[in-house]
Design goal:
Elements lengths: L1 H15 L11 H37 L7 E5 L6 H8 L12 H9 L4 E9 L3 E8 L2 E7 L1 E6 L4 E4 L10 E3 L5 H4 L1 H19 L9 E6 L5 E5 L4 E6 L4 H17 L3 E5 L10 E4 L3
Parallel strand pairs: 1-3, 4-7, 7-8, 10-11
Antiparallel strand pairs: 2-3, 4-5, 5-6, 8-9, 9-10, 11-12
Length: 282
Amino acid sequence: MMPPINRRLEVASSSHGPLPSTKTAPASGDSNRWFERLKTTLGVLLMMGASVGLAVSIRHYMTHSMRFSLVDVHVVGNERRSSEAILAESGLSVGINIFAIDLDVSRSKIARDPWIEDVSLTRSLPATVVVHVRERVAAAIAALGDLMLISADGEPFKRLEPGDPVELPVVTGMRAASLTEDHDGTVRTARRAIELASEYASSPLAARAPLEEVHVSADGSFSIVIGKGALPISLGSPPFRRKLEEAARVFTELDRRGAHAGALLLDNDTHPERVVVRMKLK
């Protein structure tokens, strides 16, 4: 009875085939892609390392090479302040590495100079720093406690010192305390005084007598003093051009009559056509 049973087992085995395996081999395509990614990553890392090393080498060369040692400081735009004075103020010195210079620090040092309105610094390789300055221009001298130089925009910027320009209109009547109490208002008043001086310079009166002083009264009205004889002319409030032209006509008429004025009053703002002449006593 045993042989028949063996035959059935053999037939069953051959009909179903071998049992399938649970293990799978990696696909060759995935292996290739993984390897390519690895090569790319290694290449990038190598390039980054080389770039960092190159950058360090370049920086070391630029900050240590004698080729980039400061040789010249070229100052542009200065007229009143000498290049030597500006160089001294900057703190720059020949021989320092041009890339070690803190341009902002040098700029702030130069900007402390009251004559310097604006300044910028640039490097000009290999060994030059260019300093571009814009200087203030004094337009008048104002009596504000001390005698102060004021710019065309009315801003007081420094005390009058030996060597400063003095052939300028003098503005009087403003209080020193007004600079702190009402700085903007004081600047506007000073600017208006400078504008009056400019209008006088272009008027017919300028050919007759030089302007000596612009005076600002406490009520905000203006007067001028002209000529070596210090003749006062009261002008009141702006605008002034028409009043100056009227004053010129009055002087022409006085000359025709051989008379001499001791003072002119054109400060009637309600009736600006009215002129009061105070005759000079002989």
